[in-house]
Amino acid sequence: MNVQKLSNMKANSQKxxxxxxxxxxxxxxxxxxxxxxxLVGDSGxxxxxxxxxxxxxxxxxMLLMSKAVxxxxxxxxLVGDMPFMSYHASVDDAIRxxxxxxxEGGMQAVKIEGDRHLAKTIRAITKxxxxxxxxxxxxxxxxxxxxxxxxxxxxxxxxxxxxxxAHELEQAGxxxxxxxxxxxxxxKIISESLTIPTIGIGSGRYCDxxxxxxxxxxxxxxxxxxxxxxxxxxxxxxxxxxxSDYKDDINTNNFPTSSHSWSMESSELKKLQKxxxxxxxxxx
Length: 284
What we know:
Layout lengths: L2 H9 L4 E5 L3 H9 L4 E4 L3 H4 L11 H14 L4 E5 L9 H13 L5 E3 L7 H9 L4 E6 L2 H4 L12 H17 L3 E5 L3 H10 L4 E4 L7 E4 L1 H4 L17 H17 L14 H15 L4
Parallel strand pairs: 1-2, 1-8, 2-3, 3-4, 4-5, 5-6, 6-7, 7-8
């Protein structure tokens, strides 16, 4: 998968599948499942490092996860999520940090949260040869500080701004835009009016693709339960049950068994027993 193929999918009315991943093992599973896009999301700050929000994620933490994901996925389009303050201070900082995702992290593109005010930054990064995925609507990096985790596009003024933002980002060179927690009507208008794909998260049925945080999809992180998430497995319960069974087997001496162990050949065992016998007789 690459940027051009993703664009062709929209042109051919093919839906795009996207998921987050933060390590080698899950990246390999997603890749083998033929997921189109793998985002190394700054949500890893919460589900991998235990922060309360995504804002504390650092470049070094994001690169650490990116390197692991790039070793596990060879077919999916890999996108690195630029963390808070890695692209805000200056355009030069943004280009430099975006370049690190490509050169050090093994990513093929980067994602940036923000509206039309970041068009200049997106244009500069794209001009440097790095594909950029935009992100409008709910912006988790700053939501807690400003207006909280709310649905966007509920009013005329909000809808108008989102539509204009989307077009500005497309004109700036974004190859794709994530629409997060935007009303279905507005996300439909945006998706139908852009030539580049839209990837929805909590933005309804009419986006060109969908993305969900992997740990939400698998119920590995039950501290949050967003309305827009569909759980496809309950790995938390399954893992807890497996670990409880493991502990019980250890306590009852049912693990390990002979089938989990190795034995000496009888001839070598006889030599060892003879040696131990000499030790008991104090002859060694």
